[in-house]
Each structure stands twice: as C-alpha cells, then as structure tokens.
Amino acid sequence: xxxxxxxxxxxxxxxxxxxxxxxxxxxxxxxxxxxxxxxxxxxxxxxxxxxxxxxxxxxxxxxxxxxxxxxxxxxxxxxxxxxxxxxxxxxxxxxxxxxxxxxxxxxxxxxxxxxxxxxxxxxxxxxxxxxxxxxxxxxxxxxxxxxxxxxxxxxxxxxxxxxxxxxxxxxxxxxxxxxxxxxxxxxxx
Length: 189
Description:
It holds the Pfam family DUF6391. There is one protein chain. This protein has 2 domains: 27-93 and 153-184, Threonyl-trna Synthetase, Chain A, domain 2 (Threonyl-tRNA Synthetase, Chain A, domain 2); 98-148, no CATH class. It is built from 5 helices and 4 strands; from the N terminus they run ααββαααββ. It has helices at residues 16-25, 28-47, 70-85, 98-116, 125-151, and strands at 54-58, 61-65, 160-169, 172-180. A hairpin with a 2-residue loop joins strand 1 (54-58) and strand 2. The two termini are 30 Å apart.
C-alpha cells in the first residue's frame, strides 16, 4: 500500500454528515470523484485488458473493483487526474456507467406508462413495446449527456489523491482510492 504523500493527511477534510448529504444531492465532491473513477478505470483497462473493472464513487473517494495489484492503482489515478485537468477531460464519461442504466430505466418506464395510459386503440401492447424500444435507443446518447453535465465534473485544482487501500468487498478484490477536495467539501459545493 502506498504511503500518503509527504505533508498529506490520510483523512478527507469533508465532514461525514456532509458526505452523506453530498451523496444524496450528487454534490461536487461526488461528481469529481465519479469523473476520476471513470478515467482511472479507462487507464487500468488499457494496462490490464483481460480484467473486468467496475467502480462506485463517494464524496471521500471511490472504489475500483478488479483483480489488479495495488501498486497499479495509484499511478493510474494520478495520471487520470492529470489527464482530466489538462488534455483528456472526456475520460470523465464512460459508456458502461451506471448513469446510462438509470437513464434507460427511467425513460423506458416513463414511456411505457405514458403509452399504457393512452385511450384505445393506442394503448396496445405493441405500442408499449415500441415506446420502450424507442426509449432504449434514445437512452444511450442521453445517458452520455447526463454523465457529462449532471453526474461527473472535471476535478478542481484542490483535489488530491491521499492513498489507496486494498480490500475485499463481497468476496471480490477491490481498492478504495481516498481523495481530499477542500474546495468541494461544502454541502452545496
């Protein structure tokens, strides 16, 4: 496990109550960690193409799920942070993000309900299936737009990576990447 960088604390400056509020309100710290999670996973996928990665973000950091050496995580996260801030901010958006699934589920459910509430002859099973299919087709590009403008944010200059802790979550290898982001540590940051 890498040691914290000199002069850094190993604990985030964000208050635990604010962490919960940020999670529920999708605050700046969560969105910036979400972007860093995506970019880190992209870089790790390039280095370890045989490994299936996934992740989840919180205000104080993010998990990377995947069976890789702990020593590989920190350099990938540091490089991802640099690339997001400079030349490759598009790494914040990932085609297999859960946001895309949420958008697809929401659109499909709403379109099905809307058609089902129409008067006959429009409320047929065929039209419900057609509306659901159209919603799924629209969900892919819309999910990417929602990621770009709602669920991710380019990390600000105050964000720093504190450390990486290996662990096992539900029997799967994982790493928690702790971050600190004083400029995004407020309730409505």
